[in-house]
Write a structure and sequence with these properties.
Elements (H helix, E strand, L loop, with lengths): L5 E6 L6 H11 L4 E6 L11 H12 L5 E5 L4 H7 L2 E7 L3 H17 L4 E5 L10 H9 L10 H15 L1
Parallel strand pairs: 1-2, 1-4, 2-3, 4-5
Bound molecules: coenzyme A.
């Protein structure tokens, strides 16, 4: 058993939101090391590249004790092993997240019996935030500043407005 307990917080993070950041902060109080890791969801076509999302995560996670960022290809269970993690962190925003998350957690445990998932609830003010909604609001020129770290706001607006020209 490693002395340092590492957890991996996987996601698409396209873009990372204040809700994700809230989960990272909560997780960092429970584990010695958190790896916030960008993975591939085969149904998603992200607006930002992996290097861009890594840069965003680095910017917003700097200063949170024990937090590093990374990415992985392929299965999450392999990333858990490669990063030496004892747990997977996932945020549960509402009951509607539960079914998908439950299925994913059980499948991951089926693939790798040591793979435990720890669910954390973000602050209620973020319970309705999703990356898809943020992209939609930004695409139509709405204000995303309450939901996204300031470093990312402008970049997202620029990127999406380039796409609509
Ligand atoms: N605040 C705001 N939004 C949050 C949130 C929070 N605290 N927690 C989740 N979300 C939102 C995200 O914004 C995202 O919204 P979107 O669907 O509109 O983009 C959604 O919830 C879920 O996204 P995310 O948490 O980024 O995860 P995901 O469902 O995209 O899963 C992986 C991505 C990488 C974890 C998953 O696909 C995976 O494990 N891939 C590797 C391949 C693999 O092993 N597959 C088998 C899995 S059983």
């Amino acid at each position: 058993m490693p002395l340092e307990r590492t957890a991996i917080y996987p996601g698409t993070f396209d873009p990372v939101t204040n809700g994700h950041l809230d989960v990272v902060r909560r997780a960092s109080r429970l584990f010695d090391r958190i790896v916030v890791a960008i993975g591939t969801h085969s149904g998603k076509r992200p607006v930002f590249t992996v290097p861009e999302r890594l840069a965003h995560l680095r910017q917003i996670c700097q200063g949170i004790p024990g937090v590093t960022v990374g990415s992985f290809d392929g299965l999450l269970t392999r990333a858990v092993r490669d990063f030496g993690a004892v747990a997977v962190i996932r945020g549960l925003r509402a009951v509607s997240d539960f079914e998908y998350e439950f299925q994913m957690a059980l499948m991951n445990r089926e693939l790798s019996p040591q793979c435990e998932t720890v669910f954390l609830m973000p602050s209620p003010e973020y319970s309705f935030v999703s990356s898809t909604m943020i992209r939609e609001i930004a695409r139509f020129g709405g204000d995303i500043s309450p939901f996204v770290p300031p470093e990312i706001c402008e970049q997202l607006q620029r990127r999406l407005q380039e796409g609509t020209r």
